[in-house]
Design a protein that fits this description.
By secondary structure, the protein is α+β, with helices and mostly antiparallel strands. It has two helices and four strands. Helix 1 links the parallel strand 1 and strand 2.
């Protein structure tokens, strides 16, 4: 799980890329990115980074009981 709350939008892409690279090397099937709800700027930046990352199969917002729109669940390619 990577916590991004409190970070600036311009810091997100490098942090997400490094985390996803490590997760893919560890053969994790999925990870959680905690960006918070706020204005949605961090969520949008995270989703933009996920669309470009080669290890990402798909992603979705977490279920309400697991963070809802403040958490993105990322499914990695095998």
């Amino acid at each position: 799980e990577l916590h991004l709350r409190g970070m600036r939008v311009h810091e997100i892409e490098d942090a997400v890329d490094r985390y996803l690279d490590s997760a893919a090397l560890a053969s994790l099937p999925w990870v959680r990115l905690v960006h918070g709800k706020g204005t949605g700027a961090l969520r949008s930046a995270v989703h933009d980074a996920l669309k470009r990352h080669p290890a990402v199969d798909r992603f979705e917002l977490a279920d309400v009981e697991h963070g809802g729109s403040g958490v993105t669940v990322v499914h990695l390619k095998e």
